[in-house]
Amino acid sequence: MVEQTPPAEGRGPDAGSLIRYREDEPVDHGAVTVDAFLAQTNASAVRVEPGDDVRELLPHLERLALIEVNFPAFGDGRGYSSARILREAGYDGELRAVGDVLVDQVAYMRRCGFDAFDPDAPLDEDDLQAALARWPEVYQSAADSRTPIWNLRN
Q: Do 20 and 94 form a contact (C-beta atoms < 8 A)?
């Protein structure tokens, strides 16, 4: 299911809308930094910056409803690794890519385990659907549930 919501309160008119591929309700409270999360016991949402080590969150995954991974620039790919580490460790909560998220990246981010997106600029729905449908087959296993083409042979 794809759900798009308008920009969050306090975000500028150029902010993108939240795009979710989940059935549950979106987390409606702000995320704290990794350091702040590790220093308290009541946070259930955390924001990962490019220099953060997500492995510090692994012992706490069961209490996290939302992990935001910030992409400050489209060329910074460290968030892809963060997503894959979290999903392979068993995190099943909302994993949201935020920041400079471009339509051409969404399909790859989905393969790494992202199931929500909060881009700085709105994504055109038709372009988004075209990007997600562009490659119907995949060649390797990833954090998503798609079966690699070599595993589909007789």
A: yes
Q: What is the pLDDT of residue 41?
A: 80
Q: CB neighbours (10 Å) of residue 114?
A: 29
- What pLDDT is attached to residue 16? 58
Half-sphere exposure of 14 (CA within 13 A, CB side): 4
Can you give the length of the chain in residues? 154
Q: Could you give the CA distance from residue 123 to residue 139 in angstroms, rounded to a whole number?
A: 27
Return all residues near 14 (Cβ < 8 A) that are at least 6 apart: 120, 121, 122
> Residue 121: which domain range?
3-152
**Cα distance between residue 65 and residue 28, in whole Å:** 10
**Helical H segments across 21-147, by residue range:** 34-38, 78-88, 103-112, 125-133
Tell me the mean pLDDT per 10 residues along the chain, length 154: 46 63 89 94 93 96 96 90 95 96 92 94 92 80 75 73
